[in-house]
Amino acid sequence: MNARTSDAARTRARMVDRLRTQGIRDEKVLSAMAQVPRHQFVEEGLAYSAYDDTALPIGFQQTISQPFVVARMIELLRAGRELGRTLEIGAGCGYQAAVLSKIAVEVYAVERIRPLLDRARENLRPLRLPNVRLKHADGSVGLPEAAPFDTIIVAAAAIGVPQALKDQLAPGGRLMIPVGAADQRLLLIERQGNVFKESWCEAVRFVPLLTGTE
Ligand code: SAH
């Protein structure tokens, strides 16, 4: 390990300690976050803040999500079960896809902005994660060709829950999506047969879920 890598490992261990004090209890989630080098997903000039509990710019007016929110969403989705086949909507720089890859069987991550998807691909390549597939697509319609999913996690805020996402949940599957405009809250939806049970979770702040690709 060179000095920079070991510094990063130390700062990352502190981030994980902080996540514990913030109430994250799921050891699988904490271990995944301890493994993924978050500093490699932000621009070099921001690497010193990579392990702070804040969202950071990744270009194209988008942000890498706050570590606590990444951990919390995955912890709530897991709640004592496996994530299984997982769809992430809004791959951004690829960080959350890397965290999910340590926990889920298979991860499909879609991003609507082509140059961001290319960046995610570059960021993920050195980590050699064979169970992650990236796709340039509008995730507001889900990913029909790979459905159904046991888990769907949306990293951008929607005004309403897209019906396609509910339709693409496997039986017993769960969807986590931030809902709202100025005031947003996480919504967890669990499919039981054709009944969709909804639970509202904490307040959050995400970039908007848009349609189409660019
Ligand atoms: N998951 C990322 C956070 C990305 S921010 C991380 O680990 O840090 C949210 C991302 O959602 C942005 O990159 C944005 O371009 C993307 N996005 C917004 N609407 C989308 C849509 N309909 N389909 C796919 N991606 C979308």
Protein topology:
Elements: H1 3-21, H2 27-35, E1 56-59, E2 62-64, H3 67-78, E3 85-89, H4 95-101, E4 106-111, H5 114-124, E5 132-136, E6 149-154, H6 163-167, E7 169-180, E8 184-192, E9 195-204
Parallel strand pairs: 3-4, 3-6, 4-5, 6-7
Antiparallel strand pairs: 1-2, 7-8, 8-9
Helix pairs in contact: 1-2
The structure holds S-adenosyl-L-homocysteine.
S-adenosyl-L-homocysteine (SAH) binds next to strand 2, helix 4 and strand 4.
Helical percentage:
25-40%
Sheet with the most strands? 7 strands, mixed
Coarse morphology: globular
Give the structural class.
Answer: alpha/beta
Number of domains: 1
Poorly predicted segments? none
Architecture in CATH?
Answer: 3-Layer(aba) Sandwich
**Quick one: how many beta strands?**
9
Could you characterize the architecture of this molecule?
The protein has 214 residues and is of the alpha/beta class. It has a single domain (54-204), classed as Rossmann fold (3-Layer(aba) Sandwich). It contains 6 helices and 9 strands. The strands form 2 sheets. It has a 7-stranded mixed beta sheet with strand order 5-4-3-6-7-8-9. It binds S-adenosyl-L-homocysteine. S-adenosyl-L-homocysteine is lined by residues 62-65, 89-93, 95-96, 110-113, 116, 138-140, 155-156, 207, 209-211.
